[in-house]
Specification:
This protein is α/β, with parallel strands linked by helices and 284 residues long. It has one domain: Aldolase class I (TIM Barrel, Alpha-Beta Barrel), CATH 3.20.20. 42% of the residues lie in helices and 13% in strands. It has an eight-stranded parallel β-sheet. Helix 11 runs parallel beside helix 12.
Length: 284
């Protein structure tokens, strides 16, 4: 067989086209059991390396038994190694806040899947609204990052969501449909298995505003129905969809009680052990 000399990115694209969007041949069986809740803390550009160990220690102490829920923390890149050491055998997952779509190369400021796996990072956040707003992230780059995460066995938390203007002009569903289609273009059902989606209404992040339970459920149900239409009902029922619009202890229980909300992507509240632990407890 002739050796392929394409870049990894091009090989992914070629394999997708050759196999009719089934790039990795593995059989996945879904079931309809209750989706395990996931609480993920996005620390953004906060908490240095020494503070990381202290915060994780407090979270472990205050949260107690977390076996019934998946808990993930996403420190800055400089704190990932100390976070991994502090996590120990607690069961908390470690996530990066970004991932590049190439294996290596001249991409100053980026970080590769191989580098993340080398330090024990099993999750990554992709397409956060702040990456889109400040750093030129697009649906195309979200798609490429997601493909690299999946082919590297790193679980992606793919973020989508509308601005206040888009919501007020009735464009929420069309925007979500466009972002979903772009993010998961040429990603097969088999490869989608470990993917998590985070719905983050941009207008509710760091503003003190929160989407109402009705608005939240409507958006999550739309996302799940899109998955059912594009992929299958079993995949749609298995996929976890997180709420990423300022979940905090005061509203966590109400939001987590919604039928299509499977957890939260937590920002500010994840920087305080008491608040983050309270949200974890609300998910049990």
């Amino acid at each position: 067989m002739r050796e392929c000399r394409c870049s990894l990115r091009d090989r992914i694209f070629c394999e997708v086209r050759r196999s009719n969007a089934m790039p990795i041949a593995r059989k996945v069986r879904y079931n309809r059991r209750m989706r395990k809740r996931l609480i993920a803390g996005n620390w953004k550009m906060n908490i240095n390396s020494s503070e990381t160990a202290e915060l994780i220690g407090q979270i472990i102490e205050k949260s107690g038994d977390i076996s019934a829920v998946d808990v993930v923390v996403a420190p800055p890149f400089t704190s990932l190694v100390s976070a991994k050491a502090a996590i120990g055998s607690s069961g908390i997952g470690l996530s990066s806040q970004n991932i590049h779509w190439e294996e290596k190369g001249a991409f100053t400021g980026e970080i590769s899947a191989g580098m993340l796996k080398d330090i024990g990072c099993g999750w990554t956040i992709i397409g956060h609204s702040e990456r889109r707003q400040y750093f030129g992230e697009t649906d195309e780059t979200v798609n490429k990052r997601t493909k690299m995460a999946l082919i590297s066995s790193i679980k992606p938390i793919v973020c989508i969501g509308e601005t206040l203007e888009e919501r007020d002009t009735g464009k929420t569903n069309s925007l979500l449909k466009s972002q979903l289609g772009g993010a998961f273009d040429n990603i097969s059902e088999a490869d989608f298995a470990d993917t998590v989606i985070a719905y983050e209404p941009v207008w509710a992040i760091g503003t003190g505003r929160t989407a109402t339970p009705e608005q939240t459920q409507e958006a999550h149900a739309f996302i799940r129905n899109w998955l059912k239409t594009i992929y299958s009902e079993p995949l749609a029922e298995a996929c976890r969809i997180l709420y990423g619009g300022s979940m905090k202890p005061a509203n966590a229980k109400e939001l987590l009680a919604l039928p299509d909300v499977d957890g939260g992507l937590i920002g500010g509240a994840s920087l305080k052990a008491d608040d983050f632990s309270a949200i974890i407890c609300a998910s049990l």
